[in-house]
Amino acid sequence: MGCCTGRCTLIFLCSLQLLAALERQIFDFLGFQWAPILGNFLQIIVVILGLFGTIQFRPRYIVVYTVWTALWVTWNVFIICFYLEVGGLSKETDLMTFNISMHRSWWREHGPGCIRRVVRPSSPGTLDDYSYVSVTGCIIDFQYLEVIHSAIQILLSLIGFVYACYVISIFMEEEDSCRTK
């Protein structure tokens, strides 16, 4: 087999997807966004499964990866719609944290160029609690950073889906040719 086979390309794409999911997982943990954390965790597990299936010539694992990839694209389309407030969705809701906390995207306060100012509450009894955080000067708004992350995930997933289908067909052809001999 040559180095530029579909199998090698799928291994490379799975590795990129793994890195992108790990990066996204870190920032979702920093923002306490539990729904994306759960989704990223599943993505990491299934991409590892797809990587293992590709390396070990196990088409069933790649089929699981392929099915999950379709679901992952759907999830990321939802994330894009959520942050762009399409169809009645609002990024101001606690949907991403399962309504258990008031946390938001980590990028909201820590994006590139953002200047964060914390305004302490006026009541003297609550020293550790901050009532308002003012963020100004961001080069790019946090919702667009989240959309870019999801768009990259979609792009990698769609390319991975195509190559996974190709690799499955190659594995099946090789399996069929071995059976007929």
Automatic annotation (TrEMBL):
Q: How does it sit in the membrane?
A: Multi-pass membrane protein
* Transmembrane recorded as keyword: yes
**Record field: transmembrane:** 34-55, 62-86, 151-172
Localization per record:
Cell membrane
A GO cellular component term found in this entry reads: plasma membrane
Q: Which residues form the signal peptide?
A: 1-21
Question: Looking at the Swiss-Prot or TrEMBL record, what is one Pfam family this protein matches?
Answer: NKAIN
Which superkingdom is the protein from?
Eukaryota
Keywords carried by this UniProt record: Cell membrane, Membrane, Signal, Transmembrane, Transmembrane helix
Q: Alphabetically, which GO biological process terms does the record hold?
A: regulation of sodium ion transport
- Signal: present as a keyword of the record? yes
The similarity comment for this entry is: Belongs to the NKAIN family.
| PANTHER family for this protein | SODIUM_POTASSIUM-TRANSPORTING ATPASE SUBUNIT BETA-1-INTERACTING PROTEIN 3 (PTHR13084:SF2), T-CELL LYMPHOMA BREAKPOINT-ASSOCIATED TARGET 1-RELATED (PTHR13084)
Q: What is this protein called?
A: Sodium/potassium-transporting ATPase subunit beta-1-interacting protein
Q: Which organism is it from?
A: Meleagris gallopavo
